[in-house]
Amino acid sequence: MSENTSKSLKKWGNFSEWFDDMLLEAQIADDRYPVKGFSVYRGWGYSIVKRIYQMLEEKLEDEGHQPMQFPVVIPEDAFQVEEDHIKGFSAEVFWITHAGENELDRRLLLRPTSETAIYPMFRIWIRSHADLPLRMHQTCNVYRYETKATRPLFRGREFLWNEAHTAHADYEEAERQVKTGVEIYRHVYDALGLSYILLKRPDFDKFPGAVYSLAFDTWNPDGKVNQIGTVHELGENFAKVFQLTYEDEEGTQKLAHTTCYGMGMGRTLAATIAHHGDDNGLVLPPVVAPKQVVIVPIPFKGKEKEVVSYAREIESKLKTAGIRVVMDDDDRLRPGEKYYKWEMFGVPVRVEVGPREADARSVTLVRRDTKEKTVARFEDLVGAIRGLFGDIYENLRTRSWERLDNELVEADTLDELKSKMNDRRIVRVSWCGDPHCAFEIKDQVAGEVRGTLWKKEEKPIGPCVVCGDTASEVAYVSRTY
Ligand SMILES: [Zn+2]
Asked: Does the reported pTM lie above 0.90?
């Protein structure tokens, strides 16, 4: 029995404690590894991550990205080529300076992101227009010496992600790729039932070296927005410094245009846990649940054999149908304790099998999200369960978007903004677009200007909330991780 059964978990009352409990109790991640900022992903957590990766990789490859794997080390000289880039990342870089006792002649760093590893190779591979577009992706770990407080899944010094890098003949093609990148990420977040706001980051907050950056921000029960993915238009900036040129049809040398995008697995997993979970534990979307169904046999004196053999029949039927199923026949636990345990793990559907079910060749099905019970006949079992998977997914997705709607509010004045930040909301304000007004907001309220909606014009409702000048944009302000 987990030690948590006597604890009452409150996702909304105390998110931080709830979340830490989830990570340990549901075996998601463990940050007791003896290097600060580095966590271990445990079995249940990593199984979910693998499924998210799989959805993402399949979609990327459908859209023409080749899977690749670049070395984790980048030589100092390649890293220092792009000036803004090095300014943005240098404070967070882990250096490798020695091999045994000997100092390396060329210092190496652990990739904080891979542009400077990938572009020197793109330069070799791209000769003519026939080599474009070039699209690749890799699933890997990156390393950043975060100075802000680390927190498992949300902010670590090693993090799991997938990054994609593309090169194109011109800006228009790169722009189309940015849209494709956005669609690929939407596809994954939608499958996870996650709501999000897609923002164009203000210039002062864009990816170092980018023309502009887009980010998927999502709500968190503690009121701090969670950035789960980013897409960057790099224009010719990186191509210039890495001399990424190609010969066009007329034989002229031209600069390529590039894009990149990255999805953080820790944060995407954190959002999945935070959006859907409840006071009884995780609630997992069936598509990523390591086990989608748990069968709990309910033994009854004299009927044990019938019940267990019927439960085995159900197990094999579900396995044959490709449903990930676990049979909990551990007789050290009572059925009620098993319910509790698998609710904690967020298994979407529980199948209860007792003597009555065995006699009638039926099953009792219990949804994790609503606890609703239904009865199905053995013949209809697979269809009934798949139907429930669909209903659970729809319910989780609807709830997540309703919550986002609920989190979004407006403020006309700085005071109002302050008070709504204290309520931990995501606040829309009219903004003149001047970075100084954004910095003023950061100084005055416990929140930051996260950006403006991408490709969706929003009319400011009044003057700039800081300076009172004419506003040109509607900015989203929130606390952040
Ligand atoms: Zn202003």
From this structure: yes
